[in-house]
Amino acid sequence: SQQGEEDPQALSIQEGENATMNCSYKTSINNLQWYRQNSGRGLVHLILIRSNEREKHSGRLRVTLDTSKKSSSLLITASRAADTASYFCATDAERGAGGYQKVTFGIGTKLQVIP
Amino acid sequence: EAQVTQNPRYLITVTGKKLTVTCSQNMNHEYMSWYRQDPGLGLRQIYYSMNVEVTDKGDVPEGYKVSRKEKRNFPLILESPSPNQTSLYFCASSPFWGNTEAFFGQGTRLTVV
Prior knowledge:
Largest sheet of chain A: 6 strands, mixed
Shape of chain A: globular
Number of strands of chain A: 11
Structural class of chain B: mainly beta
Strand content of chain A: over 45%
Distance between the termini of chain B: 36 Å
Radius of gyration of chain A: 14 Å
Structural class of chain A: mainly beta
Strand content of chain B: over 45%
Oligomer: heterodimer
Order of helices and strands of chain A: EEEEEEEEEEE
Largest sheet of chain B: 7 strands, mixed
Number of helices of chain A: 0
């Protein structure tokens, strides 16, 4: 299975509620990132958290990282209909055939915020 | 404006007809990569490039070729497309290799019939 697996795969909430998405990975990482994708569009970077950081904030976003559990969570507070999108985590643990570090994305969590 | 530009945005082609999807970035980034996105499978990396003339296979390189002759361009070549390459393709670039913020193109929706 892929490095960086998001959970749940789909989430539906009411506007104003908080949304929490989780990402698990298998081997050591240097950084973990979260991205957002509106339907069929390119991914947009949200936040990067380094392996020596435990929590990071950006506006209504809060990301935590637990390296002992190899997991991260993305919390969106006071959600809005405009937050409806898919959210992906990306990790850098794997290396390609040539030994170079590569970035691996998970399958994503599809968030629907109902007005 | 800093951006990653892919062309074309949409393409319908026939099996076996060679095609190239272009990708260009204007941010002087060293690292570039190609992904395909399929329902239920998320983004899977096809190839990536650490810098000019340095490329490496991703998770699903079969049936694809790339080249990096200039820093700004990273074209994806399908020598003999097949229907299982029907997908949504994204090019991305980052300042340098490693897990840093990536900038994505708008995507190319390819259909092979």
